[in-house]
Amino acid sequence: MSARRILPPLPQTHARTSGTFRAPPLDGSLTFPEICDWHEKNSPEHRTFVYAGNDGQVRSISWRESARAIRVAAKLVRDRMGWQPGMAATPVVGIIAHSDGILYATLVLGIMRANYAAFPISIRNSPAAVAHLIKQVGVRHVVLGRNKGTQELFDATLEILKAQHPTADIPVASPMPVFEDLYLPESFNIPAEDLLFEFKGSDAPAWISHSSGSTAFPKPIWFTHHRVLQVLVMPWYGERDLTGSIFSAHMSPMYHGMGLLNVLWTASMGTTCGLFAPQSPPPAPDPDSVFEAAKTTDCSILMGIPAFLEVWSYNSEYVKWLATRDVVAFGGGPLNKERGDYLVSQGVPIYVSYGITETGRLNMFFPAGGKVEWEYFQLRSEITTKFIPWDDNTFELVVVSNEIYEPNVCNTTVDGRSAYATSDLLSPHPTAPGYWRIVGRTDDQIMHSTGEKTNPGPLESMLKQDSHIQDCVMFGRGKFQPGILVDPVPEYPFDPTDEARLAEFRNKIWPTVEKMNAYAPQHSRLFKEMILVSSPAKPFQFTAKGTVRRAAMIKEYEEEIEAAYEQVEKSEQSDIPLPSQWDDSTAIGFIRAVVSRIITRAVGDEDDIFQHGCDSLQATYIRNTVLRALRESTQIDTRKVETTFVYSNPTISSLAYFVAKVARGESLTESSNLSQRIEAMHKMVAKYSDNFPIHRGGISPTGGDIVLLTGSTGGLGCHILAQLADDPKVARVYAFNRPSRSGIAVRDRQRSALIQRGLEASIVDGGKIVLVEGDLTSSNFGMSSATYEEMQRSTTHIIHNAWRVDFNVSLSSFEDSIKGLRRLIELSLASPLNTPPRIVFTSSIGVLRGAAPNDRLNEVPVTAEFAAGLGYAESKWVSEQILYQAAAKTPIDPMVVRVGQLSGGPGGDWNTHEWFPSMVQTAPVLRCFPDDDRGVTWIPLDLAASAIIDFSRATNSTHTVHLAHPRPVSWHSLATIVASEFDIPLVPYAEWLANLERVAQAGDVLENGTFPSPAKRMHALQLLPTYRGLGVKTDAESSTLALGMADMEVQKAVEASSTLADVQVRQLGPQDVHQWIAYWRKAGLFGGQ
């Protein structure tokens, strides 16, 4: 048996006057599980837990009861795990459950008492994060909550484990016990001597916590029995005798370290833990329920997140009671200074609770009285610290091991002793030595008022990929959500008080922000109104190293930042009465009031608010107001409500239905949601397929083709336009685009787009191309009557290539695009020509997103089920169906072109943010590239454009073709060129993905704590879900294409296109790959490598 590690004697701080609690031996002679048994004999009547029952009566649980319940839990765990005496290892038992605090805490202590290591896992983690934790720790058994949410989380976790680690052991689950399973009648008792605890050494694991995962996947933090003992002695170095005090632990779930620490300290210093009553499901803590529970149980010490304290500060009755307490502490983030100052002015004893998972609590355990301003604190006297000078009278705190204390995690050494550099920046009190306050972090992690954290480094790096951004700084410390201060490149200077120019700039960078938001945690995502732009009068300041002086810039723009938050706060329409109940009728009345107040125009219950001018700021106002209503009138955890729910439910009726369901806690099942989407798709088809005009042509066309091309400034549109300009069969091209929001002339926009893609810009001045601006949904397309009538009389072919690209919004938000297609059909049918102009519509392979794996996808119409689930794909399917209806009811002979994967044009121009360029970007960082011996059917932009022009002159019975290369080449032939360019090996896809996952999970931090710049800039980290999906498809052996990609039939396309039918049609080869990489280098994708 290993020797016990002994700690030195402690100050006699606690249990000096208590008649029910005896201080346990905390010198290391007993472990925590043994201390629980010790209290059964020595402090049997002292209260461990206290709670208010449903009848309002206060009830308590003594150490006699809790110690016995802990042993019952230990027996249950040993029985489930098949425990045998003398087992050498300490297996890990995970807990994934949402249960009341007393039950949860008792189970954790029971697992430790059973000689297993307890691993509480936050149910707020994603399935991928839970899978990562289970795999890394080696969890073999999980105690699983009984509610549907935790079971779905575990099921999704298992799917990821099976897909990514097929040879790994899959943990077994058993149900979470209920309170009555552990707290049995007093007559039932398992004596301690009948359930022996086996001491396996002070360094045997007892408990595992995990970090928040704010920088990458959460990291497990191991607590040995010795480290648990260090947690127990921590309060003994404070200045107050807290024995008998009741700690309010209502705010902290037991799977969070702070929640469990409150329970551990009950055994150490004799405090009593105040919690909600045992019940299932447990109540969701909100400011009011926590306050009432703490008041009913007479808690003298309250500890929680700043957001709750801020809410309490606005209620005078709450403040009066808080002023009678001994301690009101906050942690996990900064407290708004104005609210903190107000609470202190009213006599509320505010204290900072400062600690991190890697080190535990770092400041003194509640000094005897407030000696300095509430923001400042003293560090624990028993820990050794070192302060590293940083900047402007700030220092990084480094915690060093000594005989009493050692950090849970060490990442550096100081004078030969292991230490943990916290990355926290502290500033000393100007006049009181030994007092400090937190001012930021060396890694600039932003702590929000919710306790969530944002790591700005990777997010800022993504934004700096945008060609309009020179530098940027994220902010949001102490706020509900982050914002960003952007410094434009020198080519784009402007006064940010010019609202039109500010809106234009935000729109320019918004695609990049959306990509960043797709990668960021939900609480770290940016909204457009929180994008601030630097003023030429207050330029960015840089250090000697060339990095932005973050703190200085945030201080410089403090007024603008506060103004932005004030505007967002005002977005909550708090004076709109809340529904008395959330039935369908009251919900729709409430949503009507919210929408009418914010949009300030009449909107029907079935009208899409985004088609009535609702912008992103107004959508945020609606979202905030709805969430406030849910928070104040229900116990729903609004953090779990999808942030895009206004976009997904863009009508008053659909939003009311959604909100009422959420308020009632009813699940919106995928199947019911899918059926509703399919119904909406069919209704949209019916709406725009009714009453087509009658074609009354009688004139034969003269001269060459006259083509109306929409969307000519995009990548594919530019290539179509260039080829039409060179086509001798074409007499004229109407290049139709929407007006620019920035006011840039259409000629300048078209020339710039052509130049960007290596195409000849002079074609716009050759007389063959007519550049027109307008709106397809407007009368005469928003053009002069003369221009419209001339286009209507002369057009022989329509190539409709313009479409809104937004993967966030629902089908109804695409209605303007669909209405525009209907107007083009009407234009065609109004033609005086004998044969109405054919409409070629560029659809998407996304319409087939619901096809079964490995299906051969034929060139035929498909049912709505194939496209349902994504608004963009649904809108394309609806448009296809409208054209099929037009073909059946009118003389129009349309052609639907489902576009597959497009590759770069002849000049290598391939968007650097797409999935394959992003994959190539990883090559010099990961030092490998994935291989596959199957084919790819990618088609270069110039060939795709040529084929589409061919389709405009062809017909087939299904009115459908697929645009993919008819002569696939092997992935290997392309990957070999990439490998040669970077002198790296080819590896199986699974190995490449595992390397990328490791970078993402580790945050790619080097030993010196920095990020290597290439990894920091990898777009692939934003696209991990895409690559994981490809990883699953890659395992589909029956797929004929690389990475399990969709296998599109192209027979009809080949029959309709001489370009594709040519047996010598250019295949992708080494030259294409070299051109792509050259283009990407020029675009800065590889950061100068």
Q: What this model shows, in words?
A:
Keywords: Phosphopantetheine, Phosphoprotein. Residues 1-26 are annotated as: Disordered. The structure is a single chain. With 1089 residues, the chain is an alpha/beta fold. Among the domains are: 32-299, ANL, N-terminal domain (Rossmann fold); 446-572, ANL, C-terminal domain (GMP Synthetase, Chain A, domain 3); 584-668, Orthogonal Bundle (Non-ribosomal Peptide Synthetase Peptidyl Carrier Protein, Chain A), CATH 1.10.1200.10; 912-1005 and 1014-1088, no CATH class. Helices cover 37% and strands 16% of the residues. The strands form 12 sheets. Strands 2-1-10-9-11-12-13 form a 7-stranded mixed β-sheet.
Concise overview:
By secondary structure, the protein is of the alpha/beta class. The protein contains 37 helices and 41 strands. The strands form 12 sheets. The protein has a 7-stranded mixed beta sheet.
List the helices and strands and how they pair.
Blueprint: H1 32-42, E1 47-52, E2 58-62, H2 63-81, E3 92-96, H3 101-113, E4 117-120, H4 127-137, E5 141-144, H5 148-164, E6 172-175, H6 179-182, E7 205-210, E8 220-224, H7 225-233, E9 246-248, H8 257-269, E10 272-274, H9 287-296, E11 301-304, H10 306-312, H11 316-322, E12 327-330, H12 337-345, E13 350-352, E14 355-356, E15 360-361, E16 377-378, E17 384-389, E18 395-400, E19 412-414, E20 417-428, E21 435-441, E22 446-447, E23 453-454, H13 456-463, E24 469-475, E25 483-488, H14 499-519, E26 531-533, H15 550-556, H16 558-570, H17 584-599, H18 616-633, H19 645-648, H20 652-663, H21 670-688, E27 705-710, H22 715-726, E28 730-737, H23 746-756, E29 769-773, H24 785-794, E30 797-800, H25 815-829, E31 838-844, E32 856-857, H26 864-867, H27 871-889, E33 895-899, E34 902-903, H28 915-921, H29 923-927, E35 929-931, E36 935-936, E37 939-940, H30 941-951, E38 960-963, E39 969-970, H31 971-982, E40 986-988, H32 989-1002, H33 1013-1016, H34 1024-1034, E41 1047-1048, H35 1051-1056, H36 1058-1061, H37 1070-1082
Parallel strand pairs: 1-10, 3-4, 3-5, 5-6, 9-10, 9-11, 11-12, 12-13, 25-26, 27-28, 27-30, 28-29, 30-31, 31-33, 32-41, 33-38, 34-37, 35-40
Antiparallel strand pairs: 1-2, 7-8, 14-15, 16-21, 17-18, 18-20, 19-20, 20-21, 22-23, 24-25, 36-39
Domain Thioester reductase (TE): 709-948
Domain AMP-dependent synthetase/ligase: 38-360
Organism: Wolfiporia cocos (strain MD-104)
